Amino acid sequence: MTELSTLLSGLPGVDRVGADQRAATLATRSIKTTAKAWAIDLAIRMVDLTTLEGADTPGKVRTLCAKARRPEPSDASCPSVAAICVYPSMVPVAAEALKGSKVHLASVATAFPSGQAPLDIRLDDTRAAVAAGADEIDMVINRGAFLSGDVQRVYDEIVAVKEACGKAHLKVILETGELATYDNVRRASWLAMHAGADFIKTSTGKISPAATLPVTMLMLEAVRDFREATGRQVGVKPAGGIRTTKDAMKYLVVVNETAGEDWLDPDWFRFGASSLLNDLLMQRQKLTTGHYSGPDYVTVD
């Protein structure tokens, strides 16, 4: 057994019933009115505003970039989002549209969403996205290799992609909905972090289930324990299915109660989302004015 296999097999097993119950309990906690405005602005700052469709056009990407920079054009106090996330072919368009802003440019690479392409092609995909302006890369692991027990291959591929990223940050997508067990989620999290991930991400958003509170809680436990063991802090990004402010508030509570306040920052926690931002803006406006605007108040993504 390799050193890596020994490390992963030595991780404690996950009590699935206990994990589900704890996540459900945390989900019942609310953020009071006095803190809600702060939490909504924090959630906006944590959004990776995403469009990953075959029908994406340069015009759609430019519009999304404008929304990322100024989510509420009539209110200068509304913060910008953390990043735009697009396919590599759209990186040059997004890079031009985001020029001069503090919004990061993320791109999915490595044969997203399947990860089923030769490694040299995935590495070329990564280098091309970075060369075109991406400063964050969201890669997918080879779930087939992981589930068949070839963890060394998965580790080596993450290391290679991390090197191909250069100065760009690397988010490693586990696709937790395909990992089958909570034990696998924990092992994949530690594997990705040891291989150099800057973030671990739940999902591509292309399969169901995508992000869930219990899985995100397990990943937050992993980054907390990894920092305690190694001194290195790693971020977490749930993606897929997080659509409402109520959902986002539940995740922020889980972040605070599981990993701690250090992770309540866009540098360490992100939401991979498209429609979530619209609801955050509507709730923000409700807090400011006392009423909701009509359905055309925000753009439909």
From TrEMBL:
It holds the Pfam family DeoC. PANTHER family: DEOXYRIBOSE-PHOSPHATE ALDOLASE (PTHR10889:SF3). Pathway: Carbohydrate degradation; 2-deoxy-D-ribose 1-phosphate degradation; D-glyceraldehyde 3-phosphate and acetaldehyde from 2-deoxy-alpha-D-ribose 1-phosphate: step 2/2. It comes from the Bacteria. GO terms for biological process: carbohydrate catabolic process; deoxyribonucleotide catabolic process. InterPro entries: Aldolase_TIM, DeoC, DeoC/FbaB/LacD_aldolase. Keywords: Lyase, Schiff base. Gene3D superfamilies: Aldolase class I. GO terms for molecular function: deoxyribose-phosphate aldolase activity. GO terms for cellular component: cytoplasm. Belongs to the DeoC/FbaB aldolase family. DeoC type 2 subfamily. It catalyses: 2-deoxy-D-ribose 5-phosphate = D-glyceraldehyde 3-phosphate + acetaldehyde. This is Deoxyribose-phosphate aldolase. It is an enzyme of class 4 (lyase). Its EC number is 4.1.2.4.
